[in-house]
Design a protein that fits this description.
With about 280 residues, the protein is mainly α. The protein has helices spanning about 1-30, 35-65, 65-95, 100-115, 115-140, 150-170, 175-205, 230-235, 245-265. InterPro entries: FTR1/Fip1/EfeU.
C-alpha cells in the first residue's frame, strides 16, 4: 500500500516544516513581537500554495506527454526526488541540533529589516520542505495504481506532524527528535531506494537503458503482485516480483553506501584547546 510511504513522507517533511514554524512563532512571542505573526503565516501560506502548485504542475505535465515522454519525465522526477531526499536526510542529521538557534538569528535580522523580510524569511524556511514533499510524493506514487490512498496518506502524515509540532510548542509532548529523525531517515532511505529503482525501470521502459526483460529473479509465485502483502511491498519500497538485473543493481548501489554513511557514528568538530592563562602566542624564535 502506497499509503504508508506517503504517510511517512508527509510526517517527516511536515514535521521539519512545523518545527521551523514553531521556532519562528516562539521567538516572536517571547520577543513580544506578536504584530509580526501575520507576516510569518503569510510566508507559510505562500510556501504551501507554491508547493501545491508545483505538485499540480508535475501531474499536469506528465499527463500531457506521450508514453515515451511520460516515462522519461517520471524517471527524471524520480531521480531528482532521490537526490533531494538523500540530501535532506543527511542535512537534517547534521543540522538538527543547531537549527533553532540559526532560525532565531535569521528572524532577528529579518525583524530589523521590516515586514517584507519576515514574510520572506518564513517563506524560504518552509518552501524547501514543501517543494521536496511535492517532488517526493509525485515520485513515490508512480508505481502505485490510481487510488486516493496515497493522497490520504500524505494528508494524514501532514496532520500528524502539525499535531506533534503543536504539542511540542505547548510543551505537552517530549520526544527525542534525534531518535525520531534517525528512524524516519532510515525508513526514507528504503523508500528512496525503491524510487531510484523505479526511476531506472522508467528509463528502461523509455528505451534509454537496456535490459528491461532481463530479470534478476521471479518470485511472483511467492509474492504475487495482486496480493495484499505484494501491494504493501510495492507501495512502500517499490518491490516488484520480477525486477530486472539493472533495477536490482541500482537498488543495491544506492541502499548499501547510503545506509553505511547514514549509520556511521556522528563526529563533532574538535574545538581548539584553550590557551593557558598568562601565555601569549607569538612567532617561534
Amino acid at each position: 500500500m502506497a499509503v504508508f510511504a506517503s504517510y511517512l513522507i508527509g510526517l517527516r517533511e511536515g514535521l521539519e516544516a512545523t518545527l521551523v514554524v514553531s521556532v519562528l512563532i516562539a521567538f516572536l512571542v517571547k520577543s513580544e513581537r506578536r504584530d509580526r505573526l501575520p507576516h510569518v503565516w503569510g510566508g507559510v501560506a505562500a510556501a504551501a500554495a507554491l508547493s501545491v502548485g508545483f505538485g499540480a504542475l508535475l501531474t499536469f505535465t506528465a499527463a500531457r506527454l506521450d508514453y515515451t515522454g511520460q516515462e522519461l519525465f517520471e524517471a527524471v522526477v524520480s531521480l531528482l526526488a532521490v537526490a533531494f531526499v538523500t540530501w535532506m536526510i543527511f542535512w537534517m542529521r547534521g543540522a538538527a541540533r543547531s537549527l533553532s538557534g540559526e532560525l532565531r538569528g535569521r528572524l532577528g535580522d529579518a525583524l530589523r529589516m521590516g515586514a517584507f523580510a519576515v514574510v520572506g524569511m518564513a517563506f524560504l524556511a518552509v518552501v524547501r520542505e514543501g517543494l521536496e514533499t511535492a517532488l517526493l510524493f509525485f515520485a513515490s506514487v508512480q508505481g502505485a495504481a490510481s487510488s486516493p490512498a496515497p493522497l490520504a496518506g500524505i494528508v494524514l502524515g501532514l496532520l500528524t506532524s502539525v499535531a506533534i509540532g503543536w504539542g511540542l510548542y505547548r510543551s505537552a509532548l517530549r520526544i527525542n527528535l534525534t531518535t525520531f529523525f534517525t528512524w524516519t531517515g532510515l525508513l526514507l532511505i528504503l523508500v528512496a531506494a525503491g524510487i531510484f529503482k523505479y526511476g531506472v525501470h522508467d528509463l528502461q521502459e523509455a528505451g534509454a537503458l537496456p535490459g528491461l526483460n532481463t530479470h534478476a529473479f521471479d518470485v511472483s509465485a511467492v509474492l504475487p503482485a495482486d496480493s495484499w502483502y505484494g501491494a504493501l511491498l510495492a507501495g512502500t519500497i517499490n518491490f516488484t516480483p520480477q525486477p530486472s538485473v539493472l533495477e536490482i543493481t541500482a537498488w543495491l548501489l544506492y541502499l548499501g553506501p547510503t545506509l553505511l554513511l547514514f549509520l556511521r557514528p556522528w563526529r563533532r568538530k574538535a574545538e581548539p584547546a584553550p590557551t593557558p592563562a598568562g601565555s601569549t602566542a607569538g612567532p617561534a624564535a
